[in-house]
Design a protein that fits this description.
Blueprint lengths: L8 E3 L21 H10 L4 E5 H4 L8 H18 L2 E6 L18 H21 L3 E4 L5 E2 L7 H18 L4 E4 L9 E2 L4 H10 L6 E6 H6 L4 H10 L3 E6 L18 H13 L9 E3 L14 H18 L3 H9 L3 H13 L2
Helix pairs in contact: 3-4, 4-5, 8-9, 9-10
Bound molecules: D-xylulose and manganese (II) ion.
């Protein structure tokens, strides 16, 4: 029997966050990037994920030469720590130019800004040795539907992605859909939308997706089914595992924290699709609770990995033959209990 593969894990500097929310200030003092990198390496995670300005702070204020020099400096740091750069994502929701959207802004100058920033993000990714650009299309949608022409916006998204594909013939783009927040309604809310959009671009095979558990739940979908759908196209290039308690704000809770069975089914889907065998990482896009003390600051990350690995064991020891018998007999009540008993342990 083939040896079961081991997974490689990853998180971003933003996942060691300070606890601010729309109603209150930070509850923990900020830590330096170097501290976060050291922590990641100490915890035995294999890679870090980046926004362009996590890699090169204040990227908009810097010349191309400066951006390259700083990216090279970061690459040296990562090599010294033995940590890979998983992905780089342009932060297209923070600058004044992206107030009314980035690629789909009604202002052509702002759309141009978003495209230029994305091309720079690719240059940074190349220096860091990362082959995937993640696009969380945060502000591509509307608060007021009449404010934008959604049909034109789809063309604008395609134009922007084509520019990126043209800029670098090797880079791949993984779209991370989310149905809402910060927008009321997003143009690319699900994996189906992301992969359909990929087909409109100039090189569909280089446009895939990243699934985030919380985002799928916010869309009213089961993240395990989203995983199987993306994998049927060979297009799941990264994953943000976390958890979400229903239709609320994006909670980014530790993996499995709300619904262990939904988490189990995501792990099963990853296992049956051989996720990770082509070098893909398991990333945890999780945040500490606001109440977290400084000395417990990385527990949400360690716990997410621990839960993931325990669920891998549960997936690999699932009584498959017994389950198949119950499926053949259409005895789904017994199958339901078989799953629960397996998860709870005897
Ligand atoms: C937002 C989100 C982002 C992306 C990266 O909800 O998940 O952190 O993962 O831009
Ligand atoms: Mn995410």
């Amino acid at each position: 029997m083939a040896k079961p593969h081991t997974y490689k894990f990853c998180f971003g500097p933003w996942n060691i966050s300070e606890g601010q929310d729309p109603y209150g200030p930070p509850t923990r003092p900020p830590q330096t990037f170097d501290w976060k990198l050291a922590k990641l390496a100490e915890l035995g995670f294999e890679a870090m994920m980046f926004h362009d300005d996590d890699a090169v702070p204040n990227v908009d204020e810097k010349s191309d030469a400066q951006v390259r020099a700083e990216a090279k400096e970061l690459k040296r740091k990562l090599d010294d720590a033995g940590v890979a750069a998983e992905i780089v994502a342009p932060r297209l929701w923070f600058a004044p130019q992206t107030i009314d959207g980035a690629y789909t802004s009604n202002d052509p100058k702002c759309r141009q800004y978003a495209i230029e920033r994305s091309l720079r993000c690719i240059d940074i990714a190349n220096i860091l040795g990362s082959k995937v650009i993640v696009l969380w299309l945060a502000r591509e949608g509307s608060y007021i539907r009449e404010s934008k022409n959604a049909r034109k916006c789809i063309d604008m998204l395609v134009t922007a992605i084509n520019k990126m594909l043209e800029h670098d013939p090797r880079i791949r783009i993984a779209i991370e859909p989310k149905p809402n927040e910060p927008m009321d309604v997003a143009y690319i809310p699900t994996i189906g939308h992301a992969l359909a959009l990929a087909n409109l671009t100039s090189d569909p095979k280089r446009v895939g997706c990243l699934i985030e558990t919380a985002h799928a739940i916010l869309a009213g979908l089961d993240p395990a089914d989203e995983i199987d759908f993306a994998c049927a196209f060979g297009k799941l290039w990264s994953i943000h595992l976390n958890d979400q308690n229903g239709l609320k704000f994006d909670q980014d809770k530790p993996f499995g924290s709300v619904n262990l069975r939904v988490a189990f089914n995501q792990v099963r889907a990853l296992e049956r699709n051989g996720y990770g065998k082509k070098g893909e990482y398991v990333a945890f896009d999780v945040h500490p609770f606001r109440t977290t003390k400084v000395e417990h600051w990385t527990l949400h990350l360690e716990n997410s990995r621990r839960t993931f690995l325990r669920l891998v064991e549960k997936a690999r020891t699932f009584p498959e033959a017994e389950a198949q018998k119950l499926i053949a007999d259409r005895n789904y009540a017994a199958l339901d209990q078989l799953v629960l008993d397996h998860l709870m342990g005897k």
